[in-house]
What we know:
By secondary structure, this protein is α/β, with parallel strands linked by helices. Helix content is about 45%, strand content about 20%.
Amino acid sequence: MSTRMFAITPSGANMVPMYCKRLIRPIIGAVRIFLLALTLVASAAWSQESYPSRSVRLVIDTSPGGVTDLFGRLVAEALTPRLGQTMYVDNKPGASGNVAIDFLVRSPPDGYTLMIASGGGLVVKPFLERGLAFDVMNDLVPICNVAEVAHILVVPASVPAKDVADFIAWAKAQPGKVYYGSAGIGSPPHLSMELFARTAGLKLVHVPYKGVGGALPDLLAGRVQIMSMAIGSARPYLKTGQLRPLAAGAKHRLTNLPDVPTAAEAGVAAWEMSAWFGVFAPRGTSGEIVRLLNQHLQAVLEDPKMRERLHDAGAEPVGGSPESFAERYRADHRMWGQFIREIGLKTE
């Protein structure tokens, strides 16, 4: 028999027909590819199943007691059983939220450090603050828009206006003599009132405070005559009659204030203002982790008990995909950036 059809090993002990080797090579190659693909799938599945394997930190950019803090604690409480690991809150107030943001962007992008923050303060930072050590539009990964809180226009009992039309007429009769308070230059209450004044054609005087809480005593006393704020901040004084709501900056009437007209119903359709509160991860966090967290948050927001707790706080649950949240984030950045440039707003 001819030896041309056999391959002889260096030892000469094992002989495999060469035609068999030609048949086996493609099979071996296919098996290798299959095993590699199987390994990658198993690895990805193991990665998803193993996260989280320890507690998760939820950074809050404000002090305990505020609206962001409340929503952060609700989220952490609801996600803990779903994740199978403790999610704990870590308040890092300071520098208008910059302390918390800086901490987040410097954290490993492994899903174990997240942040909840209000969008109003985030999207305007590039236009109002200089020398930031981070880029809020590129260093943060949107995971889920948790809730939205509409602003309401409120006046103290000493102001005679009963509705928006009354207030506009009253303010136009004394241009430059009507004051409004805010939580500081560039804050959502400030931008909201600037938008309202522009929409209504009013000349109002801005009085910035260090937070809504700092402005409330002067508002209640009538030293400032109007403010835009979240319903949660105004609710105690609405109940006592010390503050009167004129309009809600939402497309639909609020569940907790069904008798208060929307901006459109009040004749100032261009004035719409709400604050959203979303969860973020640092840049570089894997898409698998982002989607997993989003799915859990979506399930939390669909829970009737969570929805009731958010409604009690004056908020509307939002939810949605990471992509829809990212688009809202970018859209608000563009809108408020243009508005800030148009009115020439600068920090002092």
